[in-house]
Amino acid sequence: MTVSASRNYIAAALCVTMVTLTTSACSPFGGNSPEARKALEIANTLHSNPIDGMTNLELIGPDCGIDYCNNDSSFSAKPKEGPLDATHCEAIYSWVTKNLSDVEVLVSYNRTDKNHGIYGCKSVLPTMFYAAIQYAGFYDGTLVQVYSQSDRVTIQIDSEGITSLDELFGVDPKVEVTGQLLNQFAAYRESQGIKQFSEKNVQEIVDTFRANPTFTSLKGKVSWKADNSGKVREIHLDYGNQGLLPFCISIEPWDTDRFGVDPGPDYMMIFQDEGEPLDQFGFAFSGDCSNA
To answer: Fewer CB within 10 Å, N side or C side of the chain?
Structure first.
């Protein structure tokens, strides 16, 4: 080992120790860049301002080793009482919009707005999907992401200089066109003044939607089966050009008792844990429908 290499090795080892003890950024391999220092400074500021009803855990600064360096800073927050669930959605969104600018929301792969985001949060937080609800915005020009992670919310401050959320929230065309199909079902329900769909209703909707060029290019296919009462409650979607697995999606009416006023389009899929009932418009899971 050369003298120069030996010095770098020792410096790296010292940096790992210092980061662990002080969350300071210092590494010959990185971690001491202006972006990393700014991310750590922002993390300290946000860490001192907890989400209502939640407690911030230890702040994690840049983490550097012999052959790697993570320049981001982050911390997590857990509820003071009980599990992370739908009761925390308003407080999380309030904290995000109070501290960040140009906020956008991603729910189960759907890029959406505030009203749908809060509804989506209330729908997905009982599930265990990683980053099922995700917010992103900017603090003093630096990207900050806030996302669900099992029993906690994680706040991550970026050090890579991302300046556009388009770089972060790319939208899968299959997710987007599925939302458009849900919009079509909702519009038909309203125009016809009905709650449940018959097989004839579904056939009319799907026949009309086949004119959608994106749906056609993705080789989209919809199948369904009525229950014993003659009503269609779920549809099975499959795309020939995969990326998403085939899945079952609910076309049941909006449940105002559980989720409040219907926010209207654009609707979205909300993925549920396996075995959960598909009893709300847009709830979905990967696989075949129960009555297929």
So the answer is: N
